[in-house]
Amino acid sequence: xxxxxxxxxxxxxxxxxxxxxxxxxxxxxxxxxxxxxxxxxxxxxxxxxxxxxxxxxxxxxxxxxxxxxxxxxxxxxxxxxxxxxxxxxxxxxxxxxxxxxxxxxxxxxxxxxxxxxxxxxxxxxxxxxxxxxxxxxxxxxxxxxxxxxxxxxxxxxxxxxxxxxxxxxxxxxxxxxxxxxxxxxxxxxxxxxxxxxxxxxxxxxxxxxxxxxxxxxxxxxxxxxxxxxxxxxxxxxxxxxxxxxxxxxxxxxxxxxxxxxxxxxxxxxxxxxxxxxxxxxxxxxxxxxxxxxxxxxxxxxxxxxxxxxxxxxxxxxxxxxxxxxxxxxxxxxxxxxxxxxxxxxxxxxxxxxxxxxxxxxxxxxxxxxxxxxxxxxxxxxxxxxxxxxxxxxxxxxxxxxxxxxxxxxxxxxxxxxxxxxxxxxxxxxxxxxxxxxxxxxxxxxxxxxxxxxxxxxxxxxxxxxxxxxxxxxxxxxxxxxxxxxxxxxxxxxxxxxxxxxxxxxxxxxxxxxxxxxxxxxxxxxxxxxxxxxxxxxxxxxxxxxxxxxxxxxxxxxxxxxxxxxxxxxxxxxxxxxxxxxxxxxxxxxxxxxxxxxxxxxxxxxxxxxxxxxxxxxxxxxxxxxxxxxxxxxxxxxxxxxxxxxxxxxxxxxxxxxxxxxxxxxxxxxxxxxxxxxxxxxxxxxxxxxxxxxxxxxxxxxxxxxxxxx
Length: 709
Description:
Helix content is about 30%, strand content about 20%. The chain is an alpha+beta fold. Among the domains are: about 100 residues, no CATH class; about 30 residues, no CATH class; about 60 residues, N2,N2-dimethylguanosine tRNA methyltransferase, C-terminal domain (Phenylalanyl-tRNA Synthetase, Chain B, domain 1, 2-Layer Sandwich). The protein has an eight-stranded mixed beta sheet, with helices on both faces. Strands 3-5-4 form a three-stranded antiparallel beta sheet. The termini are far apart. This is tRNA (guanine(27)-N(2))-dimethyltransferase. InterPro entries: SAM-dependent_MTases_sf (IPR029063), Trm1 (IPR002905), tRNA_met_Trm1_C (IPR042296), Znf_C2H2_type (IPR013087).
C-alpha cells in the first residue's frame, strides 16, 4: 500500500495500519508472557526463582474476600471456583461459600492458609462424550513451597511435612516481611531483642523466644563466665541462635573475654540476629561473601563488640571449626549433634546442652527414650534425676567415640528442660574412665529401692540380692526391673558451682542464685543451714571477691594452658585428685518424703527431718529435682524408721512432735530426745511404766501401722 515498515491488519472489516515494530513487540511479548495461574502445573517443581503466590494461598479470610470484591448490591463469582460449579451470587451467600467451602478445609503453614481450589489448574484426563471434550474440574491444593498440586488434604499435610523434614521451609514465591512496627521488644539481662508477636509458638515463626527459659540462660552464662576466668580469650558458639539473645548476653557482659559466634540454619532467623546485634550496638562479622554489605567488618579487623553470625547446619559448623565453649539447644533432643560437638571441641573446654524432649526423658513416652537414647526407663519417684543421668550417658558415649572423657560440672532437670554442662578431657584414658561409669540400675517397683549393678561382666545368679530390700522374698513374682544404661557418677562439681555462684552475684542474676546455693548444698550433701561461701579446708585456696575456692595448683595450671594437650604428669595428678574426690561424692538419687509417709501420721517438718537424719549419722541434703525430696546415703529401711519415729498421729489430742516408741523398732544411731511426753489416760501408772503404757495406747489405736512397721 505504499506504506513502508507497516502491515495491514484486517479487523471488523476495517483495514488498520499497524507499525511493524509495534507488531513485533506484541508478538515478542506474547511469546515471553508468563504462564497463567491455571497453568501452574506446567512449572518446574525444582525452580528456585521467585514467583507470585497462587490466589488460593492467603493469610486471612478477609484477604480472600478482597479477591471476590464483595458488594451488597452486585452479584460476584467465586475467585476459586469456575462459573460452571458456582454461579455468581450476592455478598452474604458468597461470604458463607468462601468461609465453609474454602477456608475451613485449608492447610496452614507458617501463618499462611492453602485454601482448596476448584479452578482448572490441575491437569486431569479429559472425558470424551461424543464429539465434545469436557475437562474434569478436580478440587486440589497448591503447595506453598513448591508448585505442586495435591488433591487430598491429608496428602497435602504429608507433603508439607516432607518439605519440613528435608529442611525446605522457604517459600519460592515473593513474600513481604512483617513491618518493624509489628515487632515486640523484649529486654532480658540488659539485652534488647526484637521478636515477632507469636514468638512463643515455634511452629508459627522462625524466631522462637521462650521467657520461661530465662533461668536456663543465666546458668549457661555463669558457666561461660567461669571458663572465661580460666583462660582468655575463648571462642564460644551458640549453635541454635533463634533470636540471638544468648550470644548477645555473652558478648555484652563478657566483652573481650569471649569471641561469640551465633549460628542458625534459617535465613529469617539469621536476619533477625543481625538486626538484634545492631539494636544492641554490636557489629556483625559474617563468614559469607557479601559485596554490598557495608555494616560488616572484615576478617582481619578485630573488635571487642563484634559478633560473628553464620548460616549453616549445626553439624556442619561443628565439624569445620573448633571452639572452647559449645551450647546446643535444639527443638527436642540433642543426640543428633553430640558426635559433631565432641569432634573438634578443645581440651578442657565445656559443652552444655539443653534437652526439651521431657516427654521421653520423664518416662511419659518410653519408646521414644529407647529410640533416641537407647535406654529402658519407667516412671519412678526420682524420674528427674533419672532423666539427667540418661542424657549424661548419651554424652559420655559420644565423647568416648572421639577419644575424650568428660567431667560433669552441672546437671539440672526442671519442669521445661534438662540442662547438662560437662568439661571435656582429651585422651583415651579419661574416655575409658568415663565409659566405666555407665551402668545399669536395679529398681524395685514395690518399695522404690534402687542400686547400681556391680562392675564386671559376670552374670549374677540372683540379681535381687544386690537390692537392700527383701521385697522379692516376701512378694510373689518379679518385683524389680533393670533400667539404663545410666550415668553412675557424680552430677555436680562443688568448686565449679561455687565459682558460678560468684559470677551470678557479680552480674546480678537473681533467679540463678537460689538455685546455685541449692546445687552447692546438694553437691556437698549438706543442709542450707551449714552452707558457707568458704569451701572445705584445703592447703591450696584461691580468693575471689572474698570467697575462697579450692583450686589445686596442678589443676589450675593445667587450665591456663590454652589448646595444648596435658602432659602425663598432670594427667596423673588429675586422676589422683578425682579419685580423692570420689570418696566425698554425693549419694545417688533421693527419696520423696510424701511417697514414703505413713498413713494416719503427720510427718515432721522437712528441715527438722533433715536434722534428725543428720543426727542419726547420715549425710543428708535437699535436692533441686524435687521440693520434697531428700538426698541421703541412708538405706530406705532406715529412712522409713526415722520418718516413723518422728511422725505424730493425726487424732485429736495426740502427742506433740517427737519420737514415737514402738515395740521392736529398729535403733538408728543415738536417740534424739522427745519434744514432749506422750499423753495417756492412765496417768496413775508409775513413772517407769509411762513409756510402755503410751506404746500400748498407740498400738491399740493404730494396730495396722504397727504391724506393718
